[in-house]
Amino acid sequence: VQLQASGGGLVQAGGSLRLSCTVSGSIPIIDAMAWYRQAPGKERDLIASFAPSGSTFYADSVKGRFTISTNSAKNTMWLQMNTLEPEDTGIYYCNVEEKYSDYAGDWEFRDYWGQGTLVTVSS
What we know:
Elements: E1 2-6, E2 9-12, E3 17-24, E4 30-38, E5 44-50, E6 56-58, E7 66-70, E8 76-81, E9 90-101, E10 107-113, E11 117-122
Parallel strand pairs: 2-11
Antiparallel strand pairs: 1-3, 3-8, 4-5, 4-9, 5-6, 7-8, 9-10, 9-11
């Protein structure tokens, strides 16, 4: 399984960008699809996620400005980012969490990551 993120770039504050993430390979059970952001000098943080049930999560810092979405095949996801702020600068990583059953019949989880795409918002 491979994830390929794209769409990053340089944008002025107040502008918009749309990130894409293409998932190659088969993931039988997807528990969640998400976008993380790593700002300069900081840890990687969850900013938006989507569950197959349709539920979504957004970090307070992006709520109302960012929208996560996927296609029906769950092999592409997007992050629409509007009203960008300099604080949104960072490397954006897409993530897919696989749910699988181990030999004992217990559920386990495995994460797949894209390579990251850089978003720079100038003031």
